[in-house]
Amino acid sequence: MDLAVDETAGTGPAIVCLPMFGTSRATTAAALSPALAGAGLRETYLDLPGHGDSPATGHPTSQAVLDAVCAWLDRHLDAPVLLAGASYGAYLAAGIARQRPELVRGLLLVCPGVAISPERRTLPDRRRPPAAPTGWLDAAPADLRAHLDTALGHRTPAVVATVLAALTSGGSGDETFQQDLRTGPGYALPDEHDDTVFDGPVSVLTGRQDGIVGYADQFHAMRRYPRGTFTVIDEAGHYLPFEQPALLRSLTQDWLRRTHN
Q1: DSSP state string for 160-188
Q2: How many whole angstroms separate alpha carbon 172 and alpha carbon 54?
Q3: Cα separation of 18 and 72, whole Å?
Q4: What is the value of pTM for the model shown?
Q5: Taking the CA of residue 94 as centre, how many other CA atoms within 13 Å lie in the half-sphere pointing to its CB?
Q6: What angle do CA 173, 175, 181 make, to 5 degrees?
């Protein structure tokens, strides 16, 4: 399967960036390209199967999606590569490092999913939501307000506008495939709970107020990464790249430095 891709020219190592569930490569580029700017990397932004402009796989499972990404890497890039991902994309990137470690030079995992099933996630206490100005969600569509209220830690109209612009960029993909994937028995990778060790440099970035995937499960999963750095950021939630872009850039640059050691 050929996946839709955008690439930037660079003389350094290749970095492949995987998107959040239901979003496109344009959303991923908006989230991660500012943090990678100036590093000279060959940046590659993929649309997952059934997302953006990529066709769906025959089977709506995360393993089929992961296999399609690995097949694309095998065909198009010289391994190993740097892998970066946000949310579901980070979940897949970690899965690739477990199943095909020879493909991966290092991992940048931003608000990664660890347990795909919502009832298995350890989430922060939401009884005291962060302060927010009156009307901070007024510009959001009504059907997204509850999600953003749960997801965001940096709660301002400017952050909401940035997130909405990113979420609506690029194609919407095959919504039937996405729904079947999310609700089907194959949404979790079969080795989701395996503590397979990945020895490359890893940076795991989480939001203190992330009500979607939390930050505690990600900390406990650090036993898988002997060269891993874990960061939890206050006033950040599930859309951390748009909530705290300066911190994301600083921490990404530190990770890139470690990938050269």
Answers
A1: HHHHHHHHTSS----HHHHHHHHHSTTSS
A2: 10
A3: 12
A4: 0.97
A5: 34
A6: 105
d(CA 36, CA 249): 7
CA R_g for the chain: 17
Contacts of 11 (CB under 8 A, 6+ apart): 40, 42
To which residue do tokens 């194609």 refer? 171
Pairing of strands 81-86, 104-110: parallel
pLDDT, one tens digit per residue, over 166-183 is 999 988 899 999 999 999
3.40.50.1820, 3.40.1360.10, 1.10.10.10, 3.40.50.880: which CATH number matches 5-259?
A: 3.40.50.1820
Query: Tokens 């490569």, residue?
Result: 25
Lowest mean pLDDT among 26-35, 168-177, 208-217: 168-177
d(CA 196, CA 118) in angstroms, rounded, equals 22
d(CA 229, CA 252): 11
